């Protein structure tokens, strides 16, 4: 059984220079990431609808803030229950896990590329095609690229990129990134396996991968320090539940705001399916709907769907907390490998909300059009930058086309790519392996906001002037 004393490890790769004792390590993690450029970029990355002029519709940042709030609440509730039941005897346990969950939930989408999850698929498909081309075998350094390294790109994953950002790319003073505690980093490992271990038949945690080969060493330290081994950290289940609860309901609300979802029709259908089980909840919702009509509240559909969201998220929250406690021993032994929401008594709410999103929101004209824009942009940028970096001999002279592309890449990313095993900037461009170059490009492109990606693509395509 995993041990909370290890799971809540406040150890860091580099010992913290702060000695203040009014914050625990996880509160410090939260305070470290809030001012970061990586987090700020999420304000211009799509949740569902990219490139929105409407401030109401959620971005990846507002979604992450909502997930963080849910995670903090889970920490308070679960922490209190575990202490009351005598399962945990650690000082300030509730405070620690609520701070950890608030932090890990805030950064859970940090590695998502522009244009949402569609962006991940575009990158995956691009590399699948690129690796299969005959010309690929002619590139310099191909023999040094292992199958495991290829898989990192073929299965490109935002979760793995988030870990890479936090442990390396969000550069401060050295190669340790923001230098989070091992406890927080372990909780972020939703899929604690490499890209060559993907096997959905083994359980949820094997359905994707959680780290690139470049981060294999730090992941080993994280697993050793926290004692999770090849299993999920228990708090990872609550992070995942917070994410699920937030977006299943919020996506519908955004759909109503954009007049894609006709809420009255959908509400009646939902009530018909769920009223028997949740009669008290629907009685309350009907009362709120009547009150809104009597008071002639403007935007009644929006008000009504917001009331529904609050109720639905509350039901899913309680059910997930119960499921965590009911399966606590199995979770601590690494024997539980499912989504809490899917295994909970409120899975019926999730199924209905998901069906509405799949039927009305994801296939709507605006979403599909913007996803096609994303396909053109990300594919185009990958074509330009990968071709430039792998065909240049490593000199990257600014007078040559390949060199021009190289010099457009963020200086921070180039600096980090040239750090040696000891974290010193001793490597030159000629020392970069093919794997280093591919990581450099995916770091650069996946880190772009939606607007910046479109702007850069249009500029380099000659559609607009810089």
Rg over C-alpha atoms, rounded to the nearest angstrom:
23 Å
Beta-strand residue fraction: under 5%
Number of domains: 3
As for the CATH topology of the largest domain, it is: Hypothetical protein af1432
Measured distance between first and last alpha carbons: 58 Å
Q: Which class of secondary structure composition applies to the elements?
A: mainly alpha
> Would you tell me the overall average pLDDT?
93
Low-confidence stretches: none
In DSSP terms (H or I, runs of 4 or more residues), the helix count works out at 22
What name goes with the CATH superfamily of the largest domain? Answer: Hypothetical protein af1432
Give me the strand/helix succession. HHHHHHHHHHHHHHHHHHHHHH
**Under the CATH scheme, which architecture of the largest domain would be assigned?**
Orthogonal Bundle
Describe the global form. Answer: globular
Say how many strands there are.
0
Main sheet specs? none
Measured as a percent range, the helix fraction is 55-70%
The top level CATH class name of the largest domain: Mainly Alpha
Organism: Desulfosporosinus fructosivorans
InterPro entries: dGTP_triP_hydro_central_sf (IPR023293), dGTP_triphosphohydrolase_C (IPR027432), dGTPase (IPR006261), dGTPase-like (IPR050135), HD/PDEase_dom (IPR003607)
Protein name: Deoxyguanosinetriphosphate triphosphohydrolase
Keywords: Hydrolase
